[in-house]
């Protein structure tokens, strides 16, 4: 679930990371603070709750050393699906439009986050249920690390002349 280093075996099981979402939101939608926060918001509940939960369970040291992270509780996964749901986004956006009379630009940042996560999360790593609560359908996407790490590994091997990989 989280990246960790064990010897020379670099295990990256994450999908999109907050810095990538931040960069894309700023470049594609805008740098206004509410827009940037909205671009990061769908993952915020996970980053605020999971580490605290693992520590409270007394499993942090073991998980960090072994890179075997405990399964998150059901409520945490449900919160993740709520925050990555296009119907929830649409409902919130329409409600804000009704109240303020304006379409919120922040909703676009939230939506772009969801749309980026759909093809970049595998089912083994919390693939978004983007139609929740209407459907539990997910896409078994390809994590960017599944593409980037082998490419980096090949480049390092070519540069260093090694046959075996570092990653």
Explained architecture:
The chain is mainly α and 167 residues long. It has a two-stranded antiparallel ribbon with strand order 1-2. Helix 1 crosses helix 2, helix 3 packs antiparallel against helix 5 and helix 6 packs antiparallel against helix 7.
What is the compact description of this entry?
The protein is mainly alpha-helical and 167 residues long. The chain is 58% helix and 4% strand.
Percent of residues in beta strands: under 5%
Radius of gyration: 18 Å
End-to-end distance, in Å? Answer: 17 Å
Total strands: 2
Helix content: 55-70%
Most strands sheet: 2 strands, antiparallel
Which spans of ≥5 residues are poorly predicted at pLDDT below 50?
Answer: 1-14, 162-167
**Structural class category:** mainly alpha
Task: Describe the strand arrangement of the main beta sheet, using strand numbers.
Answer: 1-2
Number of domains: 1
* H/E topology pattern: EEHHHHHHHH
Shape descriptor: globular
Main attributes of the structure:
167 residues; mainly alpha; two-stranded antiparallel ribbon; 2 strands; globular; disordered N terminus; disordered C terminus
Please outline the helices and strands.
Blueprint: E1 4-6, E2 9-11, H1 18-28, H2 33-40, H3 44-56, H4 60-66, H5 74-83, H6 86-100, H7 105-120, H8 144-160
Antiparallel strand pairs: 1-2
């Amino acid at each position: 679930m989280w990246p960790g280093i064990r010897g020379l075996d670099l295990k990256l099981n994450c999908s999109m990371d907050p810095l990538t979402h931040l960069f894309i939101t700023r470049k594609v939608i805008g740098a206004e603070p509410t827009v940037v926060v909205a671009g990061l918001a769908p993952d915020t509940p996970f980053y605020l709750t999971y580490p605290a939960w693992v520590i409270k369970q007394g499993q942090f040291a073991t998980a960090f050393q072994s890179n075997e992270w405990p399964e998150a509780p059901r409520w945490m996964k449900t919160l993740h699906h709520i925050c990555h749901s296009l119907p929830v986004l649409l409902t919130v956006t329409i409600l804000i439009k009704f109240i303020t009379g304006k379409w919120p630009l922040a909703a676009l940042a939230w939506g772009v986050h969801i749309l980026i996560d759909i093809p970049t999360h595998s089912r083994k790593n919390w693939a978004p249920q983007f139609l929740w609560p209407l459907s539990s359908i997910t896409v078994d996407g390809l994590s960017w690390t599944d593409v980037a790490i082998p490419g980096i590994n090949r480049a390092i091997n070519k540069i260093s002349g090694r046959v075996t990989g570092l990653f």
